[in-house]
Amino acid sequence: MADIATDRTIDRSKMQVSDEVAIQITGMNKWYGTFHVLKEIDLTVQRGERIVIAGPSGSGKSTLIRCINRLEEHQAGQIIVDGTELTSDLKNIDKIRSEVGMCFQHFNLFPHLTILENCTLAPIWVRKTPKKEAEETAMHFLEKVKIPEQADKYPGQLSGGQQQRVAIARSLCMKPRIMLFDEPTSALDPEMIKEVLDTMIELAEEGMTMLCVTHEMGFARQVANRVIFMDAGQIVEQNEPEEFFNNPKSERTKLFLSQILGH
Amino acid sequence: MSDTHAQTVAYVRETMLEPQAPPVTVVGPIGWAKTNLFSSRLNTVITLIALAFVYLVLSILLPWAFHNTWSATSLRDCREMTGTDHGAACWGVIRDRWQQILFGNYPVDLRWRPILDLVLLLVALAPILFSNVPRKLLWFSAAYPFIMPWLIWGGSVWVPVMAAVGFILGYLFLKFGEKALGSLFAMIGAVVVAIVWWLFFLGPVSDIFASILPIGLEKLGSSRDIGGLMLAFVIGVVAIGLSLPIGIVLALGRQSDLLIVKTLCVGFIEFIRGVPLITLLFVASTLLNIFMPPGTNFDIVLRVIIMVTLFSSAYMAEVIRGGLAALPKGQYEGGDSLGLNYWQAQRLIIMPQALKISIPGIVSTFIGLFKDTTLVSIIGLLDPIGWATAIRADTDWIGILWELYAFIALLFFIICFGMSRYSMYLERKLKTSH
Predict the structure, then answer these.
(1) Is the pLDDT of residue A248 over 90?
(2) Contact, A101 vs A171, CB < 8 A?
(3) Is B2 in CB contact (< 8 Å) with chain A?
(4) What are the backbone angles phi and psi of residue A36, rounded to the nearest 5°?
(5) pLDDT over 50 at A232, yes or no
(6) Residue B339 with chain A: CB contacts under 8 Å
């Protein structure tokens, strides 16, 4: 795939990985019925890390990040997010979800609310922020993703790329400490992929902890500090992007990279 | 590419074309008639046949309907006035009996109460139906369910007040019990508290208040006096108002992960939908008395309202379930990922969209419910149909048929058509996509 994000110099000054642990996953297993989707996942994410998770479809990469905010339930092992363990305790789950932002492949904006209302809904109802303050925050983030002028429109009136940027702004309004991206550009036209990736790069430049499932290898190369390759529900290989792309170790990774990069 | 194509392939437009007016045959009345009525030979034939049919129907109907028979006091009068036995409508029956068709036997000197009730109903509905009405009126809408039965049945003002107190107690229990008990048990507790209040405290407490401060309206002698269109309204309005919230709860219950809740909801919905409304009405009118302790006087209209409400709630639940099923899973995940809890997500994200999708089905259920109120004539309540039967048994009006039913049909049509138009207006208003 083309290196879409190359026309932009990336400011790495704030992209610092700290020692503080943001997410700790140990021995995590998940089944869909009898099908074993995730097998013995061990993963530690430090604050400030930008991790890209790659792999063929059906390898469990989306399921993995959806487990981090409990959109999917894991059956064995431990997931600790921001010091809180994910159990069936609803209070913990809601707390973690309000700290962890998530962007979806199909945006999942609320079509019956305006862009501004989409962004202020969770701050008002979950964080109990006064409406006016929530609107100011929302406008701040909408400016950041460069669509403040669309605030009063409905999601259905925006292009895919704009909708995804609104989705990012909506997550940011909750001031999350971790952002999860589940194939954020897979449903977009090539022209729109760039605007979304630019927004994500800006976020990385500000030191946000990010986990991103994506096929944008250009983005992985430039922004990620670690690339994780998954296959058949397991982490097969993980490395710094340079090493990962130039010098993959496992046969499975080599095959995947040759297919995805070797047009 | 060969040279012969060079010119056609390399083409550059130098001047852009201005838009021009369309030909007369595609716009205006002529254009409309041409596309809709005479677009092909077959269409032209069908149009002509349809016109002939409409002419035929009207040529029979209009001469029958247009007769000045308002002043007639009996069918015999009519026949003398028009000089024919069957060929003329006899509208005198409507002038003579419209009060019964509208109010039944409701005492004449108390009729200002149902009329006021209807006016207040419109006031209470305004902020719910139209978003440009001041929001403060919603407080009145909330109070209306307590005012409405009080105006119809009369009695001490403290009964509806104390009934409202039951809701307030339940709400307070929910609000302050949520921290200690968790939301599920607080909700169950709130319902129990309210029901205990209504069953055991409502009567005595309102009696005490009534003895201190006796304010009230003259009590209606018997519920059977409520009749005519007013009865259809009382049953219809209450059942419509209650079946939507109950239907929402049942639809959510049916989707619940809690096995008992789910089983109860599915069982209830399937049972009610599997039984004709008539049987439920018979249960209300006869069987319930057998199960009640002897001597209890359980108002017949109230029993009917409960049955009609349960009946339409089950249908409502299924209509709303259709709306819920049409929502993509991503909407639930979007709400979840932002940290909204179950009730917040339902109220702010899921229900507004599911209800919007279900508007046509919901309004159809409302319309069906309102028309089904005529079934109460079978258990001896005198709704408009019941009154029509009674009037036709009167010696003055024996033999009258079409005029009464046409009048009743017109009344029902106005109301049901109004609901239908409102639903279309609402759908247009809530449309947010292109």
Answers:
(1) no
(2) yes
(3) no
(4) -85, 100
(5) yes
(6) 94-95, 97-99, 122, 126, 174
In angstroms, rounded to a whole number, what is the distance separating the alpha carbons of residues B319 and B362? 6
CA-to-CA distance for B83 and B95, rounded, in angstroms?
20
Dmax over CA atoms of chain A, in Å, equals 55
Predicted pLDDT of residue A2 = 46
Nearest-CA residue of chain B relative to A126? Answer: B340
Superfamily of domain B94-106+224-433 in CATH is MetI-like (1.10.3720.10)
Q: Which of A71, A111, A125 sits opposite B336 (nearest CB)?
A: A71
Category of B277 on φ-ψ map: left (φ > 0), alpha (ψ -120 to 50) or beta? alpha
* Helix (H/G/I), strand (E/B), else coil: A22: strand
In DSSP notation, B201-269 reads IHHHHHHHHHHHS--EEPPPS-GGGB-HHHHHHHHHHHHHHHHHHHHHHHHHHHT-S-HHHHHHHHHHH
With a cut of 90, say whether residue B245 has pLDDT above it.
yes
Map residue B187 onto helix, strand or coil. helix
Chain-chain contact of A111 with B353 (C-beta, under 8 angstroms): yes
Token pair listed for A77: 């092992």
Neighbours of B139 (CB within 10 A): 11
d(CA B236, CA B365): 11
The per-residue pLDDT for range B106-127, each reduced to its tens digit, is 888 888 999 999 999 999 999 9
Indicate yes or no: CB of A106 within 8 angstroms of CB of B349.
Answer: no
User: What is the Cα Rg of chain A in Å?
Assistant: 18
For residues B13 and B15, give the distance between their C-alpha atoms in angstroms, rounded to a whole number.
Answer: 6
| B68 to B63, B89, B93, B272, B400: CA distances (angstroms) | 11, 9, 12, 48, 16
Confidence band of B15 (pLDDT split at 50, 70, 90): confident
For A:69-98, CB contacts with B below 8 A are: 69-71, 90, 94-95, 97-98
Is B2 a residue whose pLDDT tops 70?
A: no
Task: Count other C-beta atoms under 10 Å from residue B372's C-beta.
Answer: 19
| Residue B366 confidence class, pLDDT cut points 50, 70, 90 | very high
- Identify the pLDDT of residue A4: 52
Residues of chain B with CATH 1.10.3720.10: 94-106+224-433
Reply yes or no on whether the pLDDT at B204 is more than 90.
no
- Please report which helix (H) or strand (E) contains residue B151, including its range: helix B138-153
Rounded to whole angstroms, what are the CA distances from B83 to A80, B87, B395? 94, 9, 20
Assembly ipTM: 0.89
Q: Share the mean pLDDT of chain A.
A: 89
Contacts 24+ apart (CB under 8 A), A87-93: A90/B341
Question: What DSSP designation does A46 have?
Answer: E
How far is residue B432's CA from residue A152's CA, in Å, rounded to a whole number?
11
Sheet holding A209-213, edge to edge: A100-103, A178-182, A209-213, A50-54, A226-231, A234-239
Residue B84 DSSP symbol: -
Cβ–Cβ below 8 Å for B341 and A90: yes
Q: Do B338 and A171 touch (CB under 8 A)?
A: yes
pLDDT in tens, B386-431: 999 889 888 888 888 888 999 999 999 999 999 999 999 998 888 8
B-contacting residues in A 165-184 (Cβ below 8 Å): 170-171, 174
Q: Most A CBs within 10 Å: which of B331, B337, B341, B346, as the mutation test of the A interface? A: B337
Query: Which residue, B415, B273, B430, is CA-closest to B355?
Result: B430
